[in-house]
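Our platform keeps sequence and structure together, in a single record for each protein. Nothing more is needed to write down the fold, since each code stands for a local backbone conformation. An entry from our holdings is shown next, in its original layout:
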Amino acid sequence: MEGMRQTSVTCSVIPAASETVVQLYRAGIPLLGWIAAHYWFVVRDADRCERWEVWQRPNAGGRAIGHLHCNLKPPEAHVGGGPTMLLAEWRGEEAARLQRVLADSERYPFCRRYRYWPGPNSNTFVAWVFRQARIEYPLGRLALGKNYSVS
């Protein structure tokens, strides 16, 4: 992504050479983990391991366009409010569609805007990626902001 800063990240799982795996993670938000969670994607293939998420502070590290970050944190790192949970994993055509959307995620309309409630926030981004990739996945009740309107 143009204009993004680059950092390195360690990837604990490396798929087969021709395979792309996209994973969805969740961790509780500090002090509010019992009512809200932060969701993010990790894309793994033989050449890369990238964590994609929207963060409350713009340009906080990794490669960033405003609040949209790639590799701000290691893939499985928590966000301070509870343990990291792997929720889902996609391979094949669905993984390829998710990866294409994430690779072009500067199209996300709220890269430079963030609000805890009602959004746009990290969960708004995750819901947007699913819609763009035409994948139905039910984000849980802790995904506050998932229903924020994205035109």
Observations:
- The first strand starts at residue 21 and ends at 28.
